[in-house]
Amino acid sequence: MTENKSDEVLQEQKRINHVISEIGEKINKIKKNSQLISGDVGQLRKTFWEDVTVNFDEADDVLETFTSIKQQAELLGERERSYGQIHKQLNTLNKLKYSPYFGRIDFKENGEETEAIYIGIASFMDKEEQNFYIYDWRAPISSIYYDYSKGPAKYEIPEGAVEGELVLKRQFIIRNGKVISLFDTGVTIGDELLLEVLGNQASTMMKSIVATIQKEQNKIIRNDSKKILVVQGVAGSGKTSAALQRVAYLLYRHRKTLTADNIMLFSPNPLFNSYVSTVLPELGEENMQQSTFLEYLVNRVGKGLEVEDPFSQLEILLDAEQQEKASFRLKSIEYKSSLAFKEKIEEEIHRFSTNGIIFKTIAFGGKVFFSKEELARKFYEFDATSSIPNRMELLKEWIQKEMKKHAKQERKQVWVDEEMDLLDKEDYLKAYKLTQKKSNKKIGEFAQYEEEEKILRRFIVNRRFKGIYKFIKNLEFINYIAMYKGIFMEERPKELPIDAWETICVKTMEHLKHKKIWNEDATPFAYFKDRLEGKKSNTGIKQVFIDEAQDYSPFQMAYIKELYPYSRMTLLGDVNQAIYAHANNELKEEDHKEIERIVLTKSYRSTQEIVEFTKEIAANGDIIEPFNRHGEKPVIVEVEDLNLLPGVALNRICTLKKKKYQTIALICKTKKESEQVYQYLKKHIEVRLIEKGTISYEKGISVIPAYLAKGIEFDAVILYNSSIYNTELERELFYTACTRAMHELILLTKKNQLNMFIKGINPQTYMLQIEEVKIEK
Ligand SMILES: Nc1ncnc2c1ncn2[C@@H]1O[C@H](COP(=O)(O)OP(=O)(O)OP(=O)(O)O)[C@@H](O)[C@H]1O
Question: Among the record's GO biological process terms, what is one (predicted)?
């Protein structure tokens, strides 16, 4: 660390004290204001109904009542919004009070005086609102801090570039209002501060990197020129971190038109969702919408089919004992993930335009209201030039109209008489009131009774028809499954050999028969459904982020793009961590006018020693550059007998625990392996098993299958039985697992059975140890 010049520190501390006292004053002022508003909100809520005119007598009165309620609700909403704003502001000010800024740049704009710019997580001005005590890190001028070292520098504003000279660049660590350290930096954003940050223990929650954003990451964060931004970044290069900072940046830059609700992040698993959930609040912003693609698909496919999750799909491919099943699934996955299959679906849809649509019969209590043939006939009676979704809509409207007639008929049936006796008092009362309301004039007792009975019969039929009405409204009368199956009764696509196609057809249909759908079919099925009933494109989303983009198949990627046709997209991924069988070339694709591509090659997560080792696993790993932080070389532990493996893992975990690491992971290849070793370990130490549904992880020891460790990191990683990663398909999984380690990496292996990847690694990059201690079975 650069030496702390004590008078500089004193000067800076003086300024900090002043700024903090101003922040304190502002907080007090806002609090007073907020009490007023909160009082207002409370009062408004209390007297809401007193202040509106409620009168339902005449149509005019109803309108007046409606307007009055609306006005009152708007007033309340506005006050609540300003109350929410104030709350947010107070939150940010309290953060600033603790640590007002992290950086300072002295910038001399050409022809102007040098100005000291202090940079923090939000802007803060003096009382007169004339000068900035703190600049938001997202302000245009702040980019100099991330992009330049001392010397000529410039930043962009809408009117053009502002040029000048960067005279000083200083970094602070301020805690609780006190300068802990201060250093003036040279070339990049203080390697020293970064070194300090990266040397810390891993947390179970991702941290914001705002104070140490690197120049190349800043490009990702501030990029706003093209519709699609693609980031190919090696493991640990800060893709996810930069993506979250980018969300914060976009929310700031477009604050008038963009809110957190307009941003969607697709993440790899539920654990990841919670892992990243604190970054934006730390920056004073709200979290964007977050979902896994599976969640989206399950919703879209609908209740009728159970969707296989991608992890179960992967498990089959990884299970050495199910090689035959795996080889068939691989073919199925490859084809159904391709754009060729999407084309095939398109052809099928085209055919449905003139014939072949299959419906379900709509019946009630054994009585057919609409046969499937009738529905098909009616469908094809509509104008053939109209799109399929439009005709579906017309068909639905027609059915709904016809249903009114059926309902009327049904009211006369005997079963309704029987159910009349079972009605409760409230129904009678309701019918009575409705009759009263309906007839202003006094009517005779008999007429009154007749009217009530009519209403009660309507109640009964409506109640029993509720299911059918919903079925119709949701277009469930379209037999998607039968039609989807139809694709597999057709001629072989040219991409596949005959035997492969036949097996795919038989097995896919068999699986669908059991009301289950494989993961590779889920996207095509959802797409197929969309093409028949109309796209559910989401216009509210303006920015879509896809993390681990390499794990999306070409079909999925194309589908997502169609779902969000008006959104900008940020795709982040690493071709070396593509753990699924379907290939996706999106990250490698040629540039075109809508795409901006950024490549990150420096890895920040792991020590230099770990990166030197892991880069040799990755295909094209030469481009990976380690960050200059040192630790021990990875250790490969050879074990005589595989039965000793759980005990050896336990020993190693205990040694790591003594080193006071906060998060230690034992990464296994499959769920089965994780469960087995977990059962052993839990008898000896406190340990947690992470499964696909796990939504958060805690400090301590976790046993986790490699594919669930995606995107997250641990202080120390032990790779359990590394000998079993042995096919080219498993290279990425093995690489992903090893790159989760920040400070220490240990790989257990059967003696003399180094896997095919380790065999290719320079032995200088690791230490080989033989576990000699015999452990009882
Ligand atoms: N500029 C930075 N300043 C401080 N820490 C950083 C910076 N960039 C990355 N890191 C740290 O490096 C680690 C890896 O970052 P992150 O998870 O964002 O990388 P990634 O590229 O998404 O990784 P992977 O693809 O391997 O999951 C995190 O601990 C993150 O805090």
Answer: recombinational repair
Structure tokens at 395: 């068909």
Residue 225 is given by DSSP the state S
The phi and psi torsions of 422 (rounded to 5 degrees) equal -95, 0
Instruction: Return the C-alpha torsion angle 340, 341, 342, 344, nearest 10.
Output: 90
> Pick from 745, 744, 713, 742: which is nearest to 200 by CA?
742
Kindly state whether residue 187 falls inside one of the protein's structural domains: yes
Ligand 1 geometric centre to CA of 530 (Å): 37
Does residue 186 have a known ligand-binding role? no
153 with 262, same domain?
no
CA 756-757-763 angle, to 5 degrees, is: 105
Atom 28 in ligand 1: residue holding the nearest Cα: 605
Q: Based on the fold, state whether residues 596 and 723 are members of the same structural domain.
A: no
Q: Ligand 1: does its nearest atom lie under 6 Å from the Cβ of 711?
A: yes
pLDDT, residue 756, reads 93
Distance 603 CA to ligand 1 centre (A): 8
Residue 41 shares a structural domain with residue 138 = yes
147: how many CB neighbours lie within 10 A of its CB? 19
Ligand 1 atom closest to Cα of 740? 26
Q: Which helix (H) or strand (E) holds 528?
A: helix 519-533
Token pair for 623: 């481009």
Are residue 708 and residue 627 in the same domain, yes or no? yes
Dump the DSSP string for 120-163: ESS-EE-TTS-SEEEEETTSGGGHHHHH--SEEEEEEETTEEEE
Kindly give the distance from the C-alpha atom of residue 160 to the centroid of ligand 1, in angstroms, as a whole number: 32
Are both 384 and 265 inside the same structural domain? no
Q: Which atom of ligand 1 sits closest to the CA of residue 604?
A: 12
Mutate to test the pocket of ligand 1, among 241, 265, 708 (most ligand atoms within 8 A of CB): 241
Sign of CA dihedral 177, 178, 184, 188: negative
Task: Quote the number of domains for the chain.
Answer: 4
Does the interface ipTM go beyond 0.95? yes
pTM, two decimals, is: 0.86
- The domain that holds 285 is classified in CATH as 3.40.50.300
**Residue from 605, 667, 708, 732 to probe ligand 1 pocket by mutation (most atoms less than 8 Å from CB):** 605
Cβ of 573 less than 6 Å from ligand 1: no
CA of 238 to the centre of ligand 1 (A): 3
pLDDT value for 493: 81
**Which residues of the chain fall short of a pLDDT of 50?**
1-4, 776-777
User: Where is the domain boundary, 183, 202, 221?
Assistant: 202
Task: Tell me which residue has its CA closest to atom 14 in ligand 1.
Answer: 236
pLDDT score at 273: 87
Q: Is residue 133 part of a domain?
A: yes
- Of the residues 474, 496, 524, which one is the last residue of a structural domain? 474
Both 127 and 56 in one domain: the answer is yes
Atom 26 of ligand 1: nearest residue by CA position: 235
Residue 237 is labelled as binding a ligand: yes
**Which DSSP letter does residue 549 get?**
G
Which protein residue has the closest C-alpha to ligand 1 atom 12?
Answer: 605
Residue 432, domain member (yes or no):
yes
Phi and psi at 66, nearest 5°, equal: -60, -45
Q: Whose CA is nearest to atom 15 of ligand 1?
A: 238
217 CB within 6 A, ligand 1: yes
Structural domain including 411 reads: 362-474
- Give the Å distance between the CA of 183 and the centre of ligand 1: 23
507 occurs within a structural domain: no
Are 12 and 151 contained in the same domain?
Answer: yes
Q: What is the pLDDT of residues 652-690, one digit of tens each?
A: 999 999 998 999 999 999 999 999 999 999 999 999 999
Is 235 known as a binding-site position? yes
| Tokens found for residue 710 | 């995606």
pLDDT at 3: 45
Q: Is 387 exposed, middle or buried (0-12, 13-18, 19+ CB in 10 A)?
A: exposed
Model pLDDT, residue 219: 93
| Residue 240 Cβ contacting ligand 1 at under 6 Å | yes
